[in-house]
Amino acid sequence: MIRLALILICLCSSVQAGPSLKSNGAFRWELDAPWFGGWSGIEMSGDGQQMTVISDRGQLVRAVVNRSGGRITGVAVQDSKRLGRASGGRLRKKASDAEGLAIGQNGQAYVSFEHRHRIMQTNTQTGRTSGKIGLPFENTLGDNAGVEALAIDASGTLFAIAEQPLAGDAPFPLYAFQGGKWRVSARIPKRGPFVPVGADFDRFNRLWVLERATTPLGFRSRIRRFVIDPSAPQEHTMLTTIPARYDNLEGLSVWSDQRGQMHVTMISDDNFMRILRTQIVEYIVKE
């Protein structure tokens, strides 16, 4: 079990020498289907050839990722279904705004929802949701500013970060769900206008956080990596983009292939708007 402690990750600089990211391309995913778009969460398989994604209209899709030379060349949908209730039937509109996706090593999947803020266990085979996990802080969240960053660590503990910032420059609480209760396990420093929209743990149990900022010139994205250790916390800024470098990146998956090479895959939410694209953006981690 991990040690949960109330700590503040505080470093003298948000950028440190060391690890970096190398671009592995940006693939534009297009499909002529009424449910296509709005992708907010993503999980990749260890070989990089399977992905599971969820949309903010309650769609769950599993797909094969085709590659050439390691880069994505195509996506073939295996199955697509609407998220539903445990007893059957679709979720109602305001209850279907799925934002965060986390799948543990044992295959257990969780989805976080906005508007009707909650986290649900989710069967990725059937799309049915069950086992609601309430959020003790849900009454403080705006309709469109809930938990988008959802992740599971090596011990199977579920972590959540709300998109809505606290007052001023207060850090973002990192909540851990353990023993049926939520606790604040750490606090993520707020640096600039960015807010957390995606999260994942790598094979070394380091927390990766995808953040977004909206500007008049377009979206900006930032990735930070944290070692959550009360005795020696670490923070590295891995990527910061200029406006409009990518579209509205919201989902993050960190995975390692059979050779141990670590990859970062992100997906964008086009908000079902023609002026935005669905992009699958990948980077290779250079340690």
UniProtKB/TrEMBL annotation:
SUPFAM superfamilies for this protein: NHL repeat (SSF101898)
Domain of life per record: Bacteria
Phytase-like domain span: 35-272
Residues making up the signal peptide according to the UniProt record: 1-17
Keywords: Signal
Protein name: Phytase-like domain-containing protein
